[in-house]
Amino acid sequence: MASFSGSCSAVATGQCLSATVQMKFGGPQDPARRTSVQDLVDKTQEAFPHDCYRAIPGEGGFRGFPPETAFEYIKQYGVAVEANHPYCSQQTSTPTPPDSPRIRIEDYTVKRRRLPGTDSPDFDIQPIIRQQPIVGILTAYESLGPHREGVYQGAKDDDDAKTVGGHAVVIFGYGTENGQDYYWIQNTWGPEWGDNGIAKVSAHLFIYFVYPNLEGITIQVVDCVGYVVTSHVFGYRVSYLSTEVFENVETHLENV
After folding, report:
1. Is the pTM of this model over 0.85?
2. Distance of alpha carbon 191 from alpha carbon 154, whole angstroms
3. The Peptidase C1A papain C-terminal domain covers which part of the protein (predicted)?
4. Which CATH superfamily is domain 8-252 in?
């Protein structure tokens, strides 16, 4: 069932990067090329403790973190692949095998929305979405949990007006419905949420976006003392749509 927990950034970042890798190679899903969300959950807060939130009650001491911190971890240390470090829904101390391939990014970009009442420039994120999936952080309300269809527009009434914090999702498309701009999102709560895990969310709810830069990704196999054994570099310029994150959503992209 949908819940607001600190792991959403790890899951969304992992899904976003896995989708990009899948778009490059195509073919069947391969855990050997899929980002290990568990590695992000276990190691990001260890690497960047000052960037993490306070411990979340009921989450076993897990401290959530923003997606840019997850991308910084991938940039500096690389992230293991799922085949070597599978997801288990809780923080662990299980070490990643020393010869596990690690996916790295050269850099990432953070784009913040224009704040009301300020002179900060706005920007158009749509050209980026046309090239690659991105992570978006939206203002979440309790009503997001039971949302099933239509464009989610935020608080439904005064009882729902209190936010439950920021929530990270994968954005893979955009459109306009009845004059309302929205983004197509893949949530981190599984297929029971929304329409098989995806939904349209009003653009005005998003606070900022994070995505890996287009220069490329490196998949490295590192030996036990840290030397790169093999390295394969490939670009992000790939045909758009990943079956892993965005399965069965081609019909929703007519406005992209």
Report:
1. no
2. 21
3. 1-213
4. Cysteine proteinases (3.90.70.10)
- Altogether, the residues listed in the chain come to a count of 256
Domain ranges of the chain: 8-252
Check if the beta carbon of residue 143 is closer than 8 Å to that of residue 201: no
> Residues 147, 193: contact at Cβ < 8 Å?
yes
Consecutive 10-residue averages of pLDDT for the chain (256 residues): 62 89 63 84 83 58 79 92 79 75 88 64 77 90 88 80 83 88 89 89 93 72 42 33 39 38
Quote the CA–CA distance of 148 and 155 in Å, as a whole number.
15
Cα 151 to Cα 28: distance, rounded to the nearest angstrom:
32
Question: In this structure, are residues 168 and 136 in contact, taking their beta carbons and an 8 Å threshold?
Answer: yes
Note whether 217 and 103 are within 8 A (CB): yes
Tokens found for residue 148: 């099933």
The amino acid that residue 168 corresponds to is A
Q: Is 75 exposed, middle or buried (CB count within 10 Å of its CB: 0-12, 13-18, 19+)?
A: middle
